[in-house]
């Protein structure tokens, strides 16, 4: 067996063993939040997910997670909009970015979002958000597919293991999945082990899936001056698990995946999600709903007390006839409903209280509120509506941007750049390093509805301050505003309100406009002064009289 394959398989087994405690809890969560995924977690140790679906009486947690996932998708990465603006990297010396570089990034941002729309990003993101809110950990891989189109894949929960670097960012991913021999050859070409080629050529075995391990991790020993696949900073190895043979060994120039955690869980690399908070209540709700169903069934189809003196079998059907002997025991000989003193209404009220707790854990009310934000609303109205709810979501949005959106956007941007989708970058983007000329990762500004709502507090503060200063300005004068950088304040308000960067003028254009305005004002003042002077001369009797007076 290849030593590289042996090392990869051994580490894969270790990472899978470390993930096991997390899998046990995720399995229980899946039964309440995403039953369709329960079969993928500990599938070799427990029964199929159909049994869990049969035992699920209340779907509050499932519906709340659906709302959370759809809310994050539509408010963070909505389809058909530019939800992230890609800008030039910040310069170390603080110099302004050139006009050519700004224009290149404006066009690159538009091309980037067009390419996302052509890809399967939004369908993969939908699954990612469901896993992120449901299980607390979600992973997505980005690669360039056939015909230079981006391909995104959200990995099935329970199919991968992760490891962190010293900065607690996930930099290692070991993924198990299945491919048929025919698919393996299509993916890796004919240079695969002979055992795979034999199975692919046999009609009896070519469609029988084989287990594959894909390991992605930082490469510890490589030469950065070399440009071959085995000297890239991120290693990629595909192993055929049955025979422990290498299918392909290569690498990436940057980490090709993004793994985001809802909230860190101690020293574990896996995340903690709203489902963990809601799980005890979800279990209670499931029991309550089952009890209520029993109570309703008893009310609709009550039990009967049948006297032993009944003449015939008791007939509970509509219009059923039951004959009893009234001479024996009087009315006591008549069949009677078994009285039930159960209070279904109390159980229903208690159930609704618990449902509100589950919905709150999944931020359901916040996302329903965001869907009501109107573009015509003032900044103050939006701020008052959103500040309380969105401030609680801010830590989770920050983690999403740093662990998911930022890395996956940089990865997709890099793939599109290498594919020539953006054209030739300006020379000003490149800096010289020990390994030659390199281009730094760009900056990313998020423009989605949720990002706008989170920043609206700052905008509201600017506007409120100006309102407060207006009465003072009438007494003291306009110099009261001198401390405020009006250009930066206006740009901040415009960007937060969703105005595209391409609609805003550059600093050079603003300076040119102001110079022209100042020149026009100076010219107008000179003309007015000349006119006043001419009038004064005329009132003194003409230029000759003025000369006499000056003599």
Structure, described:
The protein folds into 4 domains: 3-56 and 137-272, no CATH class; 278-362, no CATH class; 379-486, no CATH class; 505-550. The mean pLDDT is 83. The chain is α+β, with helices and mostly antiparallel strands and 551 residues long. It contains 15 helices and 16 strands. The chain has a 5-stranded antiparallel β-sheet with strand order 4-5-6-7-8. The chain has a 3-stranded antiparallel β-sheet with strand order 3-2-9.
Number of domains: 4
pLDDT < 50 stretches = none
Question: How many distinct helices?
Answer: 15
> What summary fits the major beta sheet?
5 strands, antiparallel
The end-to-end span amounts to 115 Å
**Helicity level:** 40-55%
Q: Outline, from the CA principal axes?
A: flat
How many strand elements?
Answer: 16
On the 0 to 100 scale, the average pLDDT is 83
Structural class: alpha+beta
> Roughly how many Å is the radius of gyration?
35 Å
Topology record:
Layout: H1 3-33, H2 49-55, H3 60-76, E1 84-87, H4 99-118, H5 121-135, E2 137-144, E3 150-154, E4 160-164, E5 170-179, H6 181-188, H7 194-201, E6 210-218, E7 234-240, E8 245-252, E9 257-261, E10 264-265, E11 268-271, H8 274-300, E12 304-305, E13 336-337, H9 344-361, H10 364-370, H11 379-418, E14 430-433, E15 436-439, E16 443-446, H12 449-476, H13 486-496, H14 507-539, H15 543-550
Antiparallel strand pairs: 1-16, 2-3, 2-9, 4-5, 5-6, 6-7, 7-8, 10-11, 12-13, 14-15
Helix pairs in contact: 1-8, 3-5, 3-10, 6-7, 8-9, 10-11, 11-12, 12-13
